[in-house]
Amino acid sequence: MKKIIETIAGEISGVLAQVDENEAAKLANELQNAKRIFIAGTGRSGLIGKVFAMRMMHSEYPVYVVGETITPSIETGDLLLTISGSGSTGSLVQYAKKAKEIDAKVALVTTNNDSVIGKLSDCTITIPAATKKRLASEPDTIQPLGSQFDQSAHLLLDAIIVYLLLQKPEGKNHSSLNQKHANLE
Prior knowledge:
globular; single chain; five-stranded parallel sheet; alpha/beta; about 180 residues; Rossmann fold
């Protein structure tokens, strides 16, 4: 078991070492400047999106998860952040097209910046990880399906949260973030 854990940790470390920090900083800037943030993903990527949305809420950003019943209409000045390994997930393509029609910005976390959503996006972060497709250009992994991408996206988005918190002049600490944590548990 220890060997498996070490192998997975090494895989993720290797993938994240190849992420372009300028792409990550650009996404952080887009998040800071957005009127509101809408996050969309399907399957496991959608779950990673929900985790990120929760972190953004704790950090006092106006954030919504696409598909939830309380999510309002996207508008000009808003940002749609899509998370898709392929960058071509059908429903996410439609969301990105709709956001562009309304003059909202679109951002993408993906393995394929040349994808359909990538071409629509104002900002893209490419994570050079393995997906469920196991293309020849993807790194090797012992993990099933798109786990390597999902885990890398999760850690990268958590790093963006830390970056954003450090940019706030008043700073944020554990105590102030914890005040926004759910108390109806």
